[in-house]
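Researcher: We're reviewing a set of sequences before deciding which ones to prioritize for further study. For each one, I'd like a predicted 3D structure that I can look through quickly. This is peptide chain release factor N(5)-glutamine methyltransferase. If possible, include the structure in token form so it fits the rest of the review sheet.
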Amino acid sequence: MNQRTLTPYEINHLQKHGFSKPLDSIGEQPVEYITGHAEFCGLDFLVNPSVLIPRLESEKIVHFAVDYINRQNLAHPAVADIGTGSGCLGLSVAAYLIKQNTPYTIYLSDISALAIKLAKENAGRILRSPENLFFQESNLLENYPHIKFDIILANLPYIPSNNIATLPESVKDFEPVSALDGGPGGTQTINRLLTQIPQYLSDRGIVIIEIDDTHDLNSFSFPQKLQASIERDLFDVPRFLIINQKE
Ligand SMILES: C[S@@+](CC[C@H](N)C(=O)[O-])C[C@H]1O[C@@H](n2cnc3c(N)ncnc32)[C@H](O)[C@@H]1O
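Model: Here's the predicted structure for peptide chain release factor N(5)-glutamine methyltransferase, in token form for your review sheet.
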């Protein structure tokens, strides 16, 4: 493998986790898979090659969710994190709500049993009191109980299949393709979720879904009862579908 020049962030990350000597032959392997750690919303998540490394831009999903809970004065919000991976979205929401003493119920689900195992481990390490968290192996909402959620978060695979080969080696050769490949056009999994949403969203509820920057509202099929808009991420790129029930 070719040796690469590490960025200051990568050197710092390796040192912080006890890797002080130069590493041989790491090729394009992400440093987070070497140390087994990734920071998200200021929290230290365990990661391994069965889950995506949480991305900085996804933190905005957590901030949207907590702001919405506070603006709507939701006293005990029910939250679903679909495609939870390391658990970064749902567990970060839980961490913020614990800090402000807001009780919650949070479901974290993934189609991958290995992801659920790691998300559970992260809950035990990160949260003071990992209560009212329910972990569910589930294809989208299939295995969910029939309850109405105030907040549905989803960062599902959304890269168009044809674009996978063009991703950086550090992504396409190391991160799980099942976390990346959104089928033709990249909208297949998200469109399937959209058909399930009306059954599971409370009247005042909101859905926040991360999308590819090549997508716009016309890329998706929204059930009649729902209305949607697109928000930009911290790099000013269109990145999130914000959905609620029509009035
Ligand atoms: C892009 S990763 C996001 C992981 C994490 N939420 C994050 O923000 O870093 C997508 C996740 O969705 C899961 N996934 C893929 N298809 C799914 C499906 N049909 N139902 C539930 N989860 C799915 C993958 O296993 C993967 O963990």
